[in-house]
UniProtKB/TrEMBL annotation:
GO annotation terms (biological process): DNA recombination; DNA repair
Family, as annotated: Belongs to the RuvC family.
GN (gene name): ruvC
Positions bound to Mg(2+) 2: 79
Catalytic activity: Endonucleolytic cleavage at a junction such as a reciprocal single-stranded crossover between two homologous DNA duplexes (Holliday junction)
Organism: Hymenobacter aerilatus
InterPro entries linked: RNaseH-like_sf, RNaseH_sf, X-over_junc_endoDNase_RuvC
Protein name: Crossover junction endodeoxyribonuclease RuvC
NCBIfam families: ruvC
Length: 206
């Protein structure tokens, strides 16, 4: 059951959800205001064609920073690695998660980690739900259009589920302090002209 709304809950907030991976990483951006949720984007970062693990980690970091500077999320919700995989895979997955978190912390964005069962439980009511069941429930709840590339986008809908899980928790489990990137820019207007990742300057949300 959702906690009662507060004055802070009524302010618009952008949540970034991430489903870590070393081949495909899902991400999602939602804007919430009170109980209203607007899906801004959900997609994947593909790394299958990259030659080694180091290049994959760099790709994750660079793309995360690009997304952060485009959407200016207030909080990151990220799924914890699943402990059922082998040790080597677990190590690589942990690195991928750490790099994604580091990208957010570099922009003053607080993060919360959620166990896979917690995410599934919050979205479907069952901690043992399949990826397909999670995607189906999200499409019903958020009125999303059908997705043709289902296998690939199941990672994207998993990331969307992580963001929704955080929304349902209303950030009460927030573990990392700090201001949002948008708030940081508002408090430091001189940073607006600073180039980001060799690209265009960052603009704060209007």
């Amino acid at each position: 059951m959702l906690a009662p709304l507060t004055a802070t809950d009524l302010l618009p907030k952008i949540i970034m959800g991430v489903d870590p991976g070393t081949q495909i990483m899902g991400y999602a951006m939602i804007e919430v205001q009170g109980s209203k949720v607007k899906v801004l984007r959900y997609d994947v970062i593909e790394m299958k064609k990259l030659a080694n693990h180091a290049l994959k980690l760099k790709r994750i970091y660079d793309r995360m920073v690009e997304l952060i500077d485009e959407f200016l999320p207030d909080e990151l919700a990220i799924e914890a690695p699943f402990y059922g995989v082998n040790a080597q895979s677990m190590l690589k997955l942990g690195r991928a998660q750490g790099v994604a978190i580091a990208a957010c912390l570099s922009r003053q964005i607080p993060y919360v980690e959620y166990a896979p069962t917690k995410v599934k439980q919050s979205v479907t009511g069952s901690g043992a739900a399949s990826k397909e069941q999670v995607a189906h429930m999200l499409r019903q709840t958020l009125q999303l259009p059908p997705i043709e590339e289902a296998p690939k986008f199941l990672d994207a809908t998993d990331a969307l589920a992580v963001a929704m899980c955080h929304h349902y928790q209303k950030g009460n489990n927030q573990k990392a302090g700090g201001k949002s990137w948008g708030k940081f820019l508002a408090d430091n207007p001189d940073k607006l002209a600073a180039p980001v990742a060799g690209k265009k300057a960052v603009r704060a949300k209007g």
